[in-house]
Amino acid sequence: MRHIISVMVENKFGVLSRVSGLFSGRGYNIESISVGQTLDPTVSQMTIVTSGDDNIIEQITKQLNKLLDVIKVTDLTEFDHVEREMMLIKVQPKVEHRAETLRVAEIFRGVIVDSSARTYTIQVTGDDKKLEAIIDLLKPLGIKEVVRTGKVAIAREAKS
Question: What is the phi/psi pair of residue 91, to 5°?
Fold first, then answer.
C-alpha cells in the first residue's frame, strides 16, 4: 500500500542524505520526495511517498525517529489530508492543434508559463488522476517533455 510520510527535520547539511540512505540501506523504495524549508528557517519539511505493508511502514517510521536530526514523523495516510503535485509539460503541437492545446490547458486550470514559436510550457497542479488525465489528452497533440515535482501533503484540521 502507498503511504505518504511527513518528516520534520532540522535544516542541516546531510539530513536528506541520511534519510534517503535509511531507505536504500534497508531496500525500501522512495517513489517521490519533496523537501522545503518551513516558516522556521532551522526546520525543513520532507514529504516522502513510499509503498509497503504495515510492518514495513512501522519499521520505516521507527528508523526515521531514531535519526538525530528528525523532529517528528507522521504517516499522513492515517489522517485526512490534502496532497498535490506540480507538473510542467512542454508541448510542441502542430499549428492546427495549438488552439486545442490551449483549451486542454484551460480545462485543467493549467497556466502557460512559457511559450515560443513552436512550444507551450504548461504548469498544472493537482492529484495523480488529474495529472495523468491531462497527459493522456496532450499526448496526441505532441508532448515533448514532462517534469514532475513529487507530492507535497498536509494534514487537514479536525472539524470542531
Answer: -115, 135
Model-level pTM? 0.84
| Fold observed for domain 82-154 | Alpha-Beta Plaits (3.30.70)
Task: Report the distance separating Cα 36 and Cα 38, nearest Å.
Answer: 6
Between strands 143-148 and 43-51, the pairing is unpaired
Q: What is the DSSP string of 32-87?
A: EEEEEE-SSTTEEEEEEEEE--HHHHHHHHHHHHHSTTEEEEEEGGGS-EEEEEEE
For the chain, the C-alpha Rg in angstroms (whole number) is 19
**Alpha-carbon separation of residue 74 from 61, 81, 119, 126, 156 (angstroms):** 8, 11, 41, 22, 13
**d(C-alpha 80, C-alpha 75), whole Å:** 11
Q: How far apart are CA 89 and CA 124, in angstroms?
A: 8
Of 153, 125, 142, 150, the C-alpha closest to 30 is 150
Digit-coded pLDDT (tens) for 60-102: 999 999 999 999 999 999 889 999 999 999 999 999 999 999 9
Class of domain 2-78 (CATH, top level)? alpha beta
Mean pLDDT, residues 141-152 taken together: 95
Q: What are the start and end residues of each CATH 3.30.70.260 domain in the chain?
A: 2-78
